[in-house]
Design goal:
Layout: H1 5-26, H2 46-53, E1 61-62, E2 81-82, E3 97-103, E4 109-114, E5 120-124, H3 135-143, E6 153-158, E7 168-173, E8 182-185, E9 188-192, E10 196-201, E11 214-218, E12 232-234, E13 241-245, E14 265-269, E15 277-281, E16 285-291, E17 298-303, E18 314-319, E19 331-332, E20 336-337, H4 346-351, E21 357-361, E22 365-370, E23 383-388, E24 401-408, E25 411-412, E26 417-420, E27 424-426, E28 431-432, E29 436-441, E30 447-451, E31 456-462
């Protein structure tokens, strides 16, 4: 049932007391690196047992998902309704972590970008609901926190006193067009609008960008559902930029995406915007980008297609190979042909490669942050955190959490785990407190989580 602020606090205190009591009674402990150790009674540690309880399993999760048949279940339309957080409500993290409010009062904070001085930039933007949709659909999208007026700005946050809360917020750049990706590179600042990448003169000592920006790369604007988002990242040596562009359609029934090679792709360009080429394609809606620290490979979090049933097709986390084709719209998870595109491009079906790790169908996996710079226990520094915005095309809610993918030797090496949960208020009523999206590692080693529907950013730190 839906909880009041007071009942929410009582429930959390009870859960914390039970968890703490269990740890004490079992005699569990762990090293300061967070490695598993035995309990005082010689059994398995409570820490290990709790880790198992957080594991996420199912046919649409893992290194080798067990793909169900297309349309094995009906295609659902199940939008959540955002009701806002209780006065002292907060998400839940595993034992040994604290969750605090970094900042609130934002306007749909979608993406985060820490600066070297410790300040954090946040892109405030949202879907602009298409006027051609029926009024009842537009209302559901707005209630789910998906669509509405877009602030179209980047704000600068600062925790000047180091207490884990940003007491300063000011406009860093405004007048943009649905911005998402941000990048400070040398004397330039880049903002990825839905229709272009802009470059501005940048002074790291200045409080805001004041110079005139220049468009360095045209991009196809908008897209299916939330596919207006454009992220970007620089190569490690700063010589190249990589830009994500989602599809304009679900599975290109409209034959729009096939006419523009930039769609459903990651593009590579020089820092001045020249030399654009398609780095990888067949990626329906790539968002999160990151460099895996051990292998040095580029990885992305990708949203897969809708309307094939509850457990198809899994969103995924994958390394991105130069020149690779990942299947969309003709195939999924390797050479599994989409029945809606049957027989159209057998050459591309045969060419499609399987991604690395399935993270659940319709979870809307968007944010990505590798853990090597986190001030977390050792195991969390070897893996990736993903922000799962939450489903609308599944009969029961999935996602609405931050999950952790353990890595070994530069690749996923374990089971997907829940890390930050508690965003769903009442699944029976379709109510959620908020929705996690972009992730970033703060200079002090905390994990920052943008909650766009909650209009706030959460901070997760090790105790």
């Amino acid at each position: 049932m839906t909880m009041t602020s007071a009942s929410y606090r009582r429930r959390r205190k009870t859960l914390h007391f039970v968890a703490a009591s269990a740890l004490l009674l079992a005699g569990a402990c762990r090293t300061d690196q967070g490695r598993e150790v035995e309990t005082a009674s010689g059994g398995r540690s409570v820490y290990a047992a709790a880790q198992e309880e957080r594991q996420i399993t199912g046919p649409d999760v893992g290194l080798a998902p067990r793909l169900v048949a297309p349309a094995a279940t009906p295609s659902a339309v199940n939008f959540s309704r955002v009701i806002g957080w209780p006065a002292e409500g907060e998400p839940s993290a595993p034992a040994g972590f604290t969750v605090t409010l970094f900042v609130d009062g934002l306007d749909n904070p979608r993406w985060l970008h820490p600066l070297p001085n410790g300040d954090v930039l946040v892109a405030e933007s949202r879907t602009s609901g298409p006027a051609k949709l029926p009024p009842e659909v537009r209302q559901k999208l707005a209630a789910s926190g998906i669509s509405g007026p877009s602030a179209n700005r980047i704000s600068r946050l600062r925790d000047a006193d180091g207490d884990g809360r940003a007491e300063m917020r000011e406009t860093f750049l405004e007048g943009l067009n649905q911005p998402l990706g941000m990048l400070a590179l040398g004397n330039w600042f880049y903002a990825a609008n839905t229709d272009a990448v802009l470059r501005f003169p940048y002074d790291s000592a200045a409080a805001r960008v004041t110079g005139r920006g220049r468009k360095i790369l045209d991009l196809p604007a908008g897209g299916y559902n939330n596919h207006w988002t454009r992220n970007l990242i620089a190569s490690r040596d700063g010589s190249k930029l990589y830009v994500t562009v989602g599809s304009a359609t679900n599975v290109d029934d409209e034959r729009i995406d096939r006419r523009d090679e930039r769609r459903a792709a990651i593009l590579e360009v020089n820092p001045d915007g020249s030399g654009m080429r398609v780095f990888a394609s067949g990626l329906r809606n790539p968002n999160g980008l990151g460099w895996e620290p051990e292998s040095g490979a580029l990885w992305s979090a990708v949203n897969e297609r809708d309307e094939l049933g509850d457990e198809l097709v899994p969103d995924y986390l994958t390394s991105v190979r130069q020149g690779a084709f990942y299947g969309w719209p003709y195939a999924y998870w390797g050479s599994n042909e989409d029945p809606r595109r049957k027989g159209e491009r057998p050459d591309l079906v045969a060419k499609a490669i399987a991604p690395d790790f399935a993270v659940g169908a319709h979870t809307a996996t968007l944010g990505l942050a590798f853990g090597e710079r986190l001030g977390f226990p050792e195991r969390y520094r070897h893996g990736a955190f993903i922000g799962q915005h939450g489903s609308w095309n599944r009969s029961t809610f999935v996602g609405y959490r931050v999950a952790f993918v353990p890595f070994a030797n530069g690749r996923p090496g374990g089971t997907l785990e829940e890390f930050l949960t508690g965003f769903i208020a009442d699944s029976a009523k379709g109510e959620v407190w908020g929705r996690p999206v972009g992730l970033a590692v703060a200079r002090d080693g905390a994990l920052l989580v943008a909650d766009d529907a909650g209009n706030r950013v959460w901070r997760v730190a090790a105790r």
